[in-house]
Amino acid sequence: MKLIGMLDSPFVRRTAIGLSQLGLTFDHQSLSVFKDYSTFRQLNPMVKAPTLLLDDGTALMDSSLILQYAESMSTHSLNHLNPALFAKEQQIVGTALICCEKTVQIVYEYQIRPEDKRHEPWVKRIEQQLQEAYRQLNQLANTHQALFDTKKLSHASIATAVAWNFTRQMRPEQLGNDAFPRLRDWSAECEKTEAFRKYPYDDAMSGGGPWASA
Amino acid sequence: MKLIGMLDSPFVRRTAIGLSQLGLTFDHQSLSVFKDYSTFRQLNPMVKAPTLLLDDGTALMDSSLILQYAESMSTHSLNHLNPALFAKEQQIVGTALICCEKTVQIVYEYQIRPEDKRHEPWVKRIEQQLQEAYRQLNQLANTHQALFDTKKLSHASIATAVAWNFTRQMRPEQLGNDAFPRLRDWSAECEKTEAFRKYPYDDAMSGGGPWASA
């Protein structure tokens, strides 16, 4: 199977790292939903990253749906079976995805639109949601330290590290490096692991395309 | 547990119908992420609909993550255990979610922004993606008719009907009623079921607030 999308999208990157941690084999094709629009469109007319193309041609989209399918194909799991811990994991993933989504919305406002088409009240609203999401995520990572372990990465802990690094790279002014120390430290720890180094944000940047949502 | 959000959000509505079909008991609190922003913010500072508040205070967000958690709490499933059919279900849900997301993006462009802040190339791009997504969804519904059965609703078949009704209500000019006949007929069938009538789009409209994403 083939994962399509650039690793500077946090949704693509968390999918790539999750698939690899689940022990699944896949090719990665780094295509931008902007720069490579027409090539991407031939593979998936909806031009959505990540796209996971299965061997029978089925195209899966949406990082959460892809990873749920991947879980069912793997002999092990990056989720907790204990209901209370599974709920916490889903809360953390949901919060990290909001961090990604709100960052993407801010980036889109500044990079897709000409200056005179930006709408300040909208940006202010998103920035407030982003701050709240990171505040909540930092608190969750502090309270549930056992869920953040590089020896046993989970969908939640991967999403958290990927989100933090993405926002720091794309909109550093949104996050002081010391504003959420637990997230900063967790991101630093994760970026040293083999899985994160195999699917790095930086390499993707050399491709020059912007990030895609979901 | 309590589901927060208005049923004119397709993400909230598919969650409500999915939870009820899984046999889970919940209260529904209809709050708008726009009109009821400050009240919503007290319950969830990220102001994200749907939010599922568990009895221990855990706040789950994102319809796919909520429904994945709900599956684990239920004695039955709205997914297929057969891997090939599960892949198809995930493909259909992913495509329906793109239909919802692209519709929301068009609605946001027209309802959140003043006219002089709209960006035509962006709208054109989204409209093209929306058309492709509905073309694909109609084809999937035609090819996999066994997956669309009101006697055995699944996450995929629910998402499809909810998406179609949402776009027809919010941006009817995007979808001729006869452009995608299989989707039109499936939506009509679903809207007659008890589950869809219990969580209707129309009632929510009387609340007057707009739709929220994810």
UniProtKB/TrEMBL annotation, chains A, B:
- Extract the Pfam families matched here: GST_N_3
Which PROSITE patterns does the record associate with it? GST_NTER (PS50404)
Q: Which domain of life is it from?
A: Bacteria
Domain GST N-terminal: residue ranges: 1-78
Question: Which protein are we looking at?
Answer: GST N-terminal domain-containing protein
Q: What is the lineage of its organism?
A: Bacteria, Pseudomonadati, Pseudomonadota, Gammaproteobacteria, Oceanospirillales
